[in-house]
Amino acid sequence: MQKVALVTGSGQGIGKAIALRLVKDGFAVAIADYNEETAKAVADEITRNGGKAVAVKVDVSDRDQVFAAVEKARTALGGFNVIVNNAGVAPSTPIESITPESLYAEDPRVIDVTGFDTSDAQHGELTLGIRAVDEDKDMTIVGRKDNIDFLRENFGQVSSIRWTREFRAPINVGDVMGILTFYSENKGVAEYELVATRSIAARADAPLTLEQIEAYTAQDESPWPRFSWDLLVPPGLILLALIWLIRFIRRHRKKRIKAPKIKPIKKKYLR
Fold first, then answer.
1. Burial of 117: CB neighbours in 10 Å, binned 0-12, 13-18, 19+
2. Where would I find the beta strands (DSSP E) of 9-66?
3. Cβ-based neighbours of 203, under 8 Å, separated by 6 or more
4. Cis peptide before 170 (omega within 30 of 0)
5. Which residues pair with 176 in a beta bridge?
């Protein structure tokens, strides 16, 4: 009696090769495949070459369809001995690609600038844009959707920021405020400039910034510090306080109460 085999996913590829080998070894084969047309083509090819085969349409992810395919093979071929589970069901995971610039743009960094002019409508609030330091470096991240979502939710854990100037007006469009470093698992490190997206004017009475103080002092080639009358105010106040204290102590020394001199009383004797 001829043995019967059912091969899933045998409408093409490895499954077809397995079915042809079983036919060569004397098996009657049920060509089970989700694609009914390819299953019939393989069954017809086996029949033309003197073998015995039947095409069966089946979705291996459906348990009932698998049992129905086995029963059809048993009925059509007169028995059932072997099943070759060549077809499989694999989870389909979407693949996405994204760049660090796109990840940053979804939640850009916002800073608060001090010393801004009172006419500033946003009260010193400044959104920073991003610009690649090396534009020729490709840092496209390709991965599963869940991995990309993790990067979205934890961008701060895979990047760091080194600020390069203080958050103080005046600020011009395009000024570099800091350097963002992105750490990729497979592609190393990439650096990006965080730049001002708008200009912010400084108020007229704002104190000097560190950069302005450094520029002012750099203009003077003298090794001695520049003289200012303001430098005399603290020591002058201390000197006046000392003078007042000395005068106060002297005045109270003069006012000390002296004990009166007691004259001895001469006793008069009665005669």
1. middle
2. 28-33, 53-57
3. 115, 116, 117, 118, 169
4. yes
5. 195
Question: What pLDDT score does 210 carry?
Answer: 72
Q: Tell me the C-alpha distance between 177 and 162, whole Å.
A: 9
pTM for the model stands at 0.47
Query: For position 91, what pLDDT does the model report?
Result: 55
Cα separations in angstroms, 267 against 147, 211, 264: 120, 94, 9
Residue type, 61: S
Burial class (CB within 10 angstroms; exposed 0-12, middle 13-18, buried 19+) of 22: buried
Sequence-distant (6+) residues with CB within 8 A of 51 are 23, 28, 29
Q: Which of 35-39, 224-228, 244-248 has the lowest mean pLDDT?
A: 224-228
3-state secondary structure of 119: coil
CA–CA distances in Å: residue 113 to residues 105, 126, 171: 20, 7, 9
- Using 50, 70 and 90 to split pLDDT, how confident is the model at 270? low
Sheet hosting strand 4-8, strand order edge to edge: 53-57, 28-33, 4-8, 82-84
Q: What are φ and ψ of residue 27, in 5° steps?
A: -85, 150
Pairing of strands 28-33, 53-57: parallel
Identity (one letter) of the amino acid at 239?
L
Looking from the CA of 141 toward its CB, the CA atoms found within 13 Å total 25
Instruction: Please say if the pLDDT value at position 1 is more than 80.
Output: no
Say how far apart CA 138 and CA 234 lie, in whole Å: 59
